[in-house]
From TrEMBL:
Coiled coil: none annotated. It comes from the Eukaryota. PANTHER family: PHYTOENE DEHYDROGENASE, PYRIDINE NUCLEOTIDE-DISULFIDE OXIDOREDUCTASE DOMAIN-CONTAINING PROTEIN 2. InterPro entries: FAD/NAD-bd_sf. This is PYRD2 protein.
Amino acid sequence: LPGQILDQWFESEPLKATLATDAVIGAMASPHTPGSGYVLLHHVMGELEGQRGAWGYVAGGMGALSQAIARAAAAQGAHIFAEKAVGHVLLGSDGRAQGVVLQDGTEVRSKMVLSNASPQITFLELTPQEQLPKDFVQRIRQVDTRSPVTKINVAVDQLPSFLAAPNARDGRPLPHHQCSIHLNCEGTHLLHQAFTEATHGHPSSRPMIELCIPSVLDPGLAPQGCHVVSLFTQYTPSVLAGGRPWDEQARNDYADTVFDCIEAYAPGFKASVIGRDILTPPDLERIFGLPGGNIFHGGMSLDQLYFARPAPSYSGYRSPIPSLYLCGSGAHPGGGVMGAAGRNAARVALEDFRRL
């Protein structure tokens, strides 16, 4: 339990609750859920520029990271086809992956296929089912993909000024504006309460909010004097109570709840908003292919990690289909912007390629 880990190291309840958010981030779980302590540790593994456990902002936004990877691949001779949807994996008479067929019918032949899509899309939508073991298919279908996350992107015409640390008179960013700001985290009981509401199909009335202002460090993201605010919020159920859909009314009602909470910490925030983009779990699934809206391609619970990710006997990136590999967050070691799954999968694929 994360509570037990944090109790050993800290006394302050607000500090413990703030750190506990990393135990439940992206997970339909409470700080009191057994096993969620692993997710807390997962979020401090690795390093950034030699600093252990550190996180950073990507200059130019997260899309710039994808572009950097793309440029590195192109420099090595890779051909990248954007906006080309894959229809299915092409299999030879021997059952091996031989490339992909695009939705427009174009065949792209290759000696091996690496899929960065989720296990659900890779094996349930893109691979002929008759070629897969039934127990493997059942396991993939049973992966817990519940997600509590609603992401809200906000454009504001002034920097938020918090009661706890008011802005300077010249309006310049202060050190806390460069950090991750956690709201509604005065105690772990608040996180548990927010989680409990979602388990009954109701968006949290006092959601856990992680607020970042990347334009403070990267001014090119917004016009001068304006900022972009990124809100990572939970808990919101994928399916609302009574089967009610996440329509515009439901989206805006929840966003209003989030903004009311921020207003209590930073008066004037609501008046500064000039645009907002609300992405509920179904939106994250539809737009980004995240199963259930889960940012990790599947829960990071102990029964879905290590040798069991994405399924027992298939944690080594190879799949039941020879020459088809899984290299995304649904593979070991799971989610997070670290590239470990891709690097490991590439090494396995290269090892097999030399044998071909």
